[in-house]
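TASK: fixed-backbone design
INPUT:
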């Protein structure tokens, strides 16, 4: 085993456990049900534009929840290890964030193994480009876009921050004003040796080309990296490593370990406008 694929030297079964998010809690299904139930509740509570297409594929849609005036945009990318969940599970924070003055956008994308991670990255980049070009019609300020995501969504945030794609989609290099990946994955090389590769289909080359830590921008935006107290050591290390890489380039970055939370219920902090996680994001957004 290449030590770069397993920098902490875990035995194979322990490496697999470290990246098995579902095994880090007794039962993850109640948490996933919360995502769906609170998102459905949010859609009943506040008006939104649902299933707005950003591309030609049926999966390429977003939900938009406008705030009053020309509001900063909170764009959220769901997790699920690239193979689960959807925008239907991703609007639970909308009442709290719209109430604080943010337009919320929940992004949908196709799922692995039906498509590759490269396709998913491209979809999320096109979603961001669509938002930049069109969100003003929905009350969002394209000059104040904050991107956020959980787990695999945190990885996708990192790939939106990566350079080399914005000119092709005709968006400015500084389209992202700030970011808050939660429990993200930023070096995919260890996943090649785990059960996740059954659907991620990574190899040595693709795991590096799809790792945000190897594709840092020439100018970085302010960023918050957050994780739950009860996450595995590897999930914590991934965020700390990316934060260090960001800081070494002189980019503004802050880390936040959220007490008494795990990989799944940390997101419920976003339903509370007064939680430490929400307030930290609002600060980055100027709210």
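OUTPUT:
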């Amino acid at each position: 085993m290449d030590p770069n694929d397993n920098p902490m030297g875990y035995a194979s079964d322990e490496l697999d456990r470290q990246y098995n998010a579902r095994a880090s809690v007794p039962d993850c299904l109640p948490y996933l049900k919360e995502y769906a139930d609170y998102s459905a509740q949010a859609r009943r509570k506040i008006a939104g534009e649902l299933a707005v297409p950003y591309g030609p594929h049926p999966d390429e849609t977003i939900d938009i929840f406008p705030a009053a005036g020309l509001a900063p945009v909170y764009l959220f990318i769901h997790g699920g290890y690239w193979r689960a969940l959807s925008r239907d599970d991703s609007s639970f924070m909308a009442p709290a964030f719209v109430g604080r003055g943010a337009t919320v956008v929940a992004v949908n994308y196709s799922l692995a193994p039906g498509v590759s991670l490269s396709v998913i990255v491209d979809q999320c980049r096109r979603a961001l480009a669509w938002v930049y070009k069109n969100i003003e019609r929905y009350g969002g300020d394209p000059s104040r876009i904050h991107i956020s995501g959980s787990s695999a969504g945190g990885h996708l945030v990192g790939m939106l921050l990566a350079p080399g794609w914005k000119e092709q989609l005709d968006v400015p290099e500084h389209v992202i004003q700030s970011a808050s990946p939660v429990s993200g994955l930023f070096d995919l090389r260890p996943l090649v040796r785990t059960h996740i590769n059954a659907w991620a289909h990574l190899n040595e080359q693709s795991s590096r080309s799809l790792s945000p830590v190897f594709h840092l921008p020439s100018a970085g935006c302010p960023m918050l990296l957050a994780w739950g107290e009860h996450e595995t050591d590897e999930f914590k290390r991934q965020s700390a490593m990316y934060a260090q890489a960001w800081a070494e380039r002189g980019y503004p970055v802050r880390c936040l370990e959220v007490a008494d939370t795990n990989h799944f219920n940390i997101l419920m902090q976003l339903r509370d406008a007064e939680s430490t996680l929400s307030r930290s994001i609002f600060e980055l957004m100027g709210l």
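COMMENT: The first helix runs from residue 12 to 18.
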